[in-house]
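Q: Please design a sequence for this.
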């Protein structure tokens, strides 16, 4: 029941944010249209209107991103259970200054939000007990670290002959744009099979990933970027990226074969 209340609060905040964005855009639109009419430039009206509508659309998306960033920081820093369900993606960024209050080093130089220490260690321990060998390749990443990863990947594409713009688009498919990475929450981990370390689709065929995909929900984790859901998540299939969402949400997401976006109705 607690989760429900928090989710409602969260949705209300998003709705309020959208309302403010709409009001601001509405006022701007009225003022700008009035200016065009007053200045007697009616002949270019339609062209101007299209341009303005585009600008307003961009403004609305900026405002909603700004709201999402603040809502996300509030959720993550709050004392209630809402932190587990924070949504970080391209349209729901996280404030670049956010740092988890309490970091726990699960492996050398691999830290997570201390709130997921127990379920993560239990999951890894049970997997090991089942005869599997894996390790946490990446966990909490700050905004600056994410920027470094993003730039390095983009540089790889450029060196393969891509233009900077195309390299940016290509990089975005596999590396979250800095400020939109779940790794900045401290609630996401990349887990890799010891005997097959490549980050590609075949990683998903290892016994380690097969076990994790089957059991992660029991520990409150989900496979965050499943195959054939890139149009929803904005990120291609990543058989190594697991995200803590709590046991209740993880069970529902697993059973319904949906993404966090779909679960939250975003
Ligand atoms: Zn990841």
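A: Design:
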């Amino acid at each position: 029941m607690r989760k429900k209340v928090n989710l409602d609060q969260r949705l209300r905040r998003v709705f309020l944010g959208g309302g403010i964005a709409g009001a601001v855009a509405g006022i701007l639109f009225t003022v700008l249209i009035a200016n065009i009419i007053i200045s007697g430039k009616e002949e270019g009206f339609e062209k101007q209107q299209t341009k303005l509508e585009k600008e307003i659309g961009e403004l609305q998306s900026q405002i909603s991103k700004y709201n999402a960033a603040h809502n996300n920081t509030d959720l993550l820093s709050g004392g209630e259970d809402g932190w587990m369900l924070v949504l970080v993606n391209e349209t729901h960024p996280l404030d670049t200054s956010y740092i988890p209050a309490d970091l726990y080093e699960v492996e050398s130089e691999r830290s997570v939000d201390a709130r997921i220490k127990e379920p993560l260690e239990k999951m890894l321990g049970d997997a090991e007990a089942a005869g599997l060998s894996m390790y946490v390749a990446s966990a909490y990443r700050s905004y600056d670290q994410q920027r470094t990863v993003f730039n390095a990947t983009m540089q790889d594409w450029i060196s393969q002959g891509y233009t900077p713009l195309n390299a940016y688009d290509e990089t975005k498919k596999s590396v979250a744009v800095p400020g939109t990475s779940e790794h900045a929450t401290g609630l996401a981990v990349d887990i890799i099979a010891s005997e097959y370390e490549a980050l590609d689709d075949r990683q998903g065929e290892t016994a380690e990933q097969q076990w994790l995909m089957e059991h992660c929900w029991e520990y409150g984790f989900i496979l965050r970027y499943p195959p054939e859901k890139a149009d929803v998540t904005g990120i291609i299939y990543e058989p190594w990226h697991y995200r803590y969402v709590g046991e209740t949400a993880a069970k529902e997401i697993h059973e319904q074969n949906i993404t966090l976006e779909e679960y939250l109705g975003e």
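Q: Thanks. Anything notable?
A: The chain is about 50% helix and 10% strand. The longest strand covers residues 188-193.
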